[in-house]
Amino acid sequence: MDNQTEIHWSMRCILVDWLVQVHNRFGLLPETLYLTINYIDRFLSLKVVSLAKLQLVGATALFVAAKYEEINCPSVNEIVFMVDHSYSAEEIFKAERFMIGLLEFNLGWPGPMSFLRRTSKADDYDLETRTLAKYILEITIMDERFVGALPSWLAAAAHCLARKMLLKGEWTLAHINYSGYTLAQLRPAVNVLIECCRNPKEHHRAIYEKYCDRKYKKAALFVAEWITNVSI
Questions:
Q1: Keywords of this protein's UniProt record, alphabetized (predicted)?
Q2: Domain residue ranges of the chain, discontinuous segments joined by +
Q3: Radius of gyration (Cα) for the chain, nearest Å?
């Protein structure tokens, strides 16, 4: 972000918050969201973007990521509708070609969801733990401190914190084996994640509102209550 002249971290947060809402409305896979953010951050590290084009970068990244991950991806007309016709279909296609070229066609990326699934094996894929971990993991896309962090580390930290909140016991040898990280290695990330959870409506409003839904077992409300009790 240091090379950007008009865009700051707060603007990235606004963009990602909007993308979370769009991603949710389309009902896309979690992998698509993480891949979208990966494309955006890589693109912004290579190209100076004006504020007027930032939403175009985000919409294009989602368009490309959906094509890579989804069976049924949004059409270009649906993307145009989601940006309120701020950009035309031709502009989206042109931006798509430019983005793919700038990324040198390196579109694959081992996102954190794959590592979360592997780590979950240590708990026999416990649904309660995994759902809570998915919420905690998604929070990381909103925070600049996690940009560039290893997805395996983020996934393990999210799973570790979920187990802590649910009183699931110690971080065992099985967890170390499947995640590749000891508790000591995860503590820095866990501490930052707890900090991120303290003001969810300011830090990650769209994600918070999404995970308040029964579909996600109201994970966001559970975390908010846990944070309140810990703070007392």
A1: Cell cycle, Cell division, Cyclin
A2: 9-102, 112-231
A3: 18
> Per residue in 27-51, is it b (16+ CB within 10 Å) or e — as a string?
ebbbbbbbbbbbbbbbbbeeeebee
Q: Which residues contact 141 (CB under 8 A, 6 or more apart)?
A: 16, 20, 33, 34, 37
Q: Considering the domain 9-102, what is its CATH architecture?
A: Orthogonal Bundle (1.10)
Distance CA 120, CA 19 (A): 27
pLDDT tens for each residue of 138-170: 999 999 999 999 999 999 999 999 999 999 999
Copy the structure tokens of residue 9.
């971290």
Q: What is the pLDDT of residues 45-69, one digit of tens each?
A: 999 999 999 999 999 999 999 999 9
Round to whole Å and give the CA distance between 197 and 193. Answer: 6
Contact 62, 32 (CB under 8 A): yes
The rounded percent of the chain whose pLDDT value lies above 70 is 99
Backbone angles phi, psi at 22, to 5 degrees: -65, -45
**Tokens in use for 68?**
């890579």
The 3-class secondary structure across 147-193, one letter per residue, is CCCCHHHHHHHHHHHHHHHCCCCCCCHHHHHHHCCCHHHHHHHHHHH
So what CATH class is 112-231? Answer: mainly alpha
**Is the full-model pTM beyond 0.85?**
yes
